[in-house]
Amino acid sequence: MEAPPVSVMPVTGGAINMMEYLLQGSVLDQSLESLLHRLRGLCDDMEPESFADHELVYLLRGQQGNPFILRARRSLLQPTSPWHLRYLGQPEVGDKSRHALVRNCVDVAASHSLPDFLNEMGFRMDHEFAAKGHVFRKGQMKIVVSKLSRVLVPGNLENTEPLSLSYLVELSVLAPAGQDTVSEDMKSFAEQLKPLVHLEKIDPKRLM
Amino acid sequence: MGVTCVCQVPVAEGKSVQQTVDMLHKKLEQLGGVKQGNFWVDCETYHATANATGQQSKQLYVMHNSEAPLSCMALYEGGPHLTADANFDVLMVKLKSHFQNAKSHKVESRGARYRYCDFLVKVGTIAMSSSAKGISVEVEYCACVIPADCLNLIKEFMQSFLGSNAPEMPSNKTEGQLYTPVDCVDPMSQYLELFGKVRKQQVMTGSGVR
Amino acid sequence: MADVMNVGVNLEAFSQAINAIQALRSSVTRVFDSLKDGMKNKETLEGREKVFMTDFQDNLQSVNRDLNELERLSTLVGRPSESHPLHNSGLLSLDPVQDKTPLYSQLLQAYKWSNKLQYHAGLASSLLNQQSLKRSANQMGTSAKRRPKVQPSTLVLPTQYVDDVISRIGRMFPDMSIELFRPNGTSAVLLVTLGKVLKAIVVMRSLFIDRTIVRGFHENLYMEDGKLDIWSKSNYQVFQKVTDHATTALLHYQLPQMPDVVVRSFMTWLRSYIKLFQTPCQRCGKYLQDGLPPTWRDFRTLEAFHDTCRQ
């Protein structure tokens, strides 16, 4: 399971509009150790947490418009902990003054009946993958270094195949809308990771 | 987490909802019950706006309970249910193009919470769009987790302060449910059933009881 | 005070021995005195040495003589302390200031009492053994026949034996699961799960039940550090009441000679709670009284009663 969002906001009824600020990059398998070494030095003094998650991406198609996407994650290491359901809004990349990609984000912890319930709501599983890696923290920033693997047989997490020869590196902050100053911190942190990894704001649309 | 029984208590003849509730409070206090704060249970209804498969869409209910103030429970009548944290409400807002909140259908029950030995009794006023529609009584026997074990005991207790208004039990339990430990879903589905009943009474009587 | 008399036979020897000790001490003192003074002033060096040597020899010979005398006397005195029935504490009787510290007489008193207590306890135990499983029976005490003393050997039993007894009892009752822990040393702690009704923690000392606590089926049994919580009581009044009754049962089922029978009887009694919430009171026919189900189970018939409905 992903580490909980660092900024814990008292959400009552959940009226608070949380945004995720995100920078992404990747590092080849050979360079992983030196990156982890650097991160251990830079990040808050804590044991880096390892995780192994299974993520299922669900789509709900309406009559018109884009499908609604929800991501459900469960931890393979701690099967009793709750599922993590995540909604991510449309990314905003245009604004040059902001140094990170910004998108709306809703995190929900949910019981294990989540897949059944999403099916009942009309969601259909689109694809699934496994993510294994490490989580670091620095202040309210979260750094996730993970290896993504394809699930070869649906539902069978024993049998996976790595998607690439590199690790995905994500630097993210969860903050209420309008706190653009966090992207400054993220930029300076990303600078310190160069040249091991170049973290950039990547527009997912460009990749499609 | 014990065995729970939720039922509706008819408004006493010639009395208002509030007067009947006061009467119940008095009876509980005479019995030796001690008031322990308040409670609330609410239920929102969502309709799926458009279904790709075109089948008859079921209603999705999202409920909250003051016993678990940071959680919410989403359930389909007779279908699967989901326990989630309060952010699920935010998610439903994001989903508004697919699921529409029927604001007028929001039902809630609020009232006082009494403790008597190992019993927890909640007497609530059921309200739809802020007008009182009826009285709910929830009795939880906290010391036991198997419904079949303590049904008679709860029944006897309810008769002791509801008299002839005590409901017949069990109303909605299958054999399997009777002999397995209860979970937190059970009281909520009972409230859902009760709210559904109140809503139907509302439709039938038109203006409804005061 | 007969011991003092025994010593009195040798009193003569004692006083002689004390005199001999005094003589020995004075002769030893003389040796060191002469050594300390050194050689006396005489004309010639030779004369000085001669006189000193003879003095020293005389002194040593008198020491030797006194020592021999003392050794001779000491065989007459003997060794009274070894054979004393109270061992070293018997020497307290030799304390001359007895009026100020009457330790010896108090000691004898205490010893007498403890002897008496042990004897009476032995009698009581053998009398109680005749009452099958009933400790609080009224008809007893008439037979004043003296019975042989009973050694409390059942306090020390091999752990393997305890394990066997417990697992045998566990197999007797399919709806009751008994887990055995030994959190501290050899004393066992049993975790009894009765159906889906209750859980009881039974603290054992050897095969004797020391303490029991009953909690609800869904209540927490472990402390924050993961250890079995054998102290805190249940949150529910009904189980607090059952705990009280279980403690009563522990006092009721007593059979010091056959502790395994006691454990089995207690477990049989505890098992009658499987229908704690389902059985109405055998006297008033109701389920509830003051908000509690019938929490009392008769020790013999195992019938359910409210606490206030039992005879």
UniProtKB/TrEMBL annotation, chain A:
Keywords: Activator, Nucleus, Transcription, Transcription regulation. The keyword Nucleus applies. One of its GO terms (cellular component) is mediator complex. The keyword tRNA processing does not apply. Its main location: nucleus. Belongs to the Mediator complex subunit 18 family. This is Mediator of RNA polymerase II transcription subunit 18. It comes from Triplophysa tibetana. The lineage of its organism: Eukaryota, Metazoa, Chordata, Craniata, Vertebrata. The gene is MED18.
UniProtKB/TrEMBL annotation, chain B:
It is found in: Nucleus. The keyword Ubl conjugation does not apply. The keyword Nucleus applies. Keywords: Activator, Nucleus, Transcription, Transcription regulation. InterPro entries: Mediator_Med20. One of its GO terms (cellular component) is mediator complex. GO terms for biological process: regulation of transcription by RNA polymerase II. One of its GO terms (molecular function) is transcription coactivator activity. Belongs to the Mediator complex subunit 20 family. Component of the Mediator complex. Component of the Mediator complex, a coactivator involved in the regulated transcription of nearly all RNA polymerase II-dependent genes. Mediator functions as a bridge to convey information from gene-specific regulatory proteins to the basal RNA polymerase II transcription machinery. Mediator is recruited to promoters by direct interactions with regulatory proteins and serves as a scaffold for the assembly of a functional preinitiation complex with RNA polymerase II and the general transcription factors. This is Mediator of RNA polymerase II transcription subunit 20.
TrEMBL record, chain C:
One of its GO terms (biological process) is regulation of transcription by RNA polymerase II. One of its GO terms (molecular function) is transcription coactivator activity. Keywords: Nucleus, Transcription, Transcription regulation. Coiled coil: none annotated. One of its GO terms (cellular component) is mediator complex. The keyword Nucleus applies. InterPro entries: Mediator_Med27. This is Mediator of RNA polymerase II transcription subunit 27. It comes from Triplophysa tibetana.
